[in-house]
Amino acid sequence: MKPFIRVLTRGLVSVLTFAVAAVVVVAGVSVPAVAKVAEVSDRGFVVRHVAEVSADLDETWAMLLKPAEWWNSEHTWSGDAAHLSIDPRAGGCFCEVLPNQTSPKAAPRGGVEHMRVVYIERPRALRMVGALGPLQADAANGTLTIQLKPAEKGKGTQILLEYVVGGYVRTPFEKLAPAVDGVLGEQVGHLAAKLGGAFAAAFPLPEIQVEPKAETEVPALDVLPLSEQPPQASGKEIGR
Q: For residue 237, is it within any domain?
């Protein structure tokens, strides 16, 4: 049986729900990809992507930690994904070296910390925090979680990616979210393609019901449990 990759893409981006048809070209194979944009608020957004590959957990994990081999060079500061690396430990850096343009063999002219590892469990989960790309220039932060688990049917691995972004940005989140969704979806596709096979037919996503979120009410002091109520005032002045 030929190896295969199944890719589903879900972006949670605005209170508007719509489908965007696109063409994804990976490893010389063009197929339609389906993207959904569904929810965003002025506080941030969430992007999710899922891919299924024929490689086992260990092989998928090893490739995940080598972004130089699958990240698109167009989405780097140096223009070459070969300068990307992930230090696979808590506190480790997802970093990029900025080489000396006039003399490549000389000391690098600088570097970029894209994200920092805050949770890692081989070969199951990788979580990093940081603002990717242009988000770095604003007071934004994001949490990127990548989870690997055995495929539901047959051999292979399922890759689940979630990026949660919040903070203060000068460009509205509803405009930023589709761009971030597209870039991360592309990287998931490249990672999946690197693990062998070609895209299967695009899988339509179920409709996402967006429910309005009610504001959380702060309970009055008189309805708090007794253990949480403030002590009664003694009537004495402070210091006496």
A: no
Does residue 179 contact residue 11 with C-beta atoms inside 8 Å? no
CB 13 within 8 A of CB 37: yes
Q: Any residues with CB less than 8 A from the CB of 75 and at least 6 apart, and which? A: 133, 183, 186, 187
Rounded CA Rg of the chain: 22
Write the CATH number for 149: 3.30.530.20
pTM comes to 0.69
* Residues 36-45: tens digit of each pLDDT: 444 789 999 9
Does the pLDDT value for residue 205 go beyond 80? no
DSSP assignment of 158-205:
EEEEEEEEEEE-SS-HHHHHHHHHHHHHHHHHHHHHHTSSEE-SPPPP
Q: Which of 173, 187, 7 is nearest to 86 (CA)?
A: 187
Q: Write out the residue range of the structural domain in which residue 12 sits.
A: 4-228
Q: Which residue has the tokens 């480790």?
A: 92
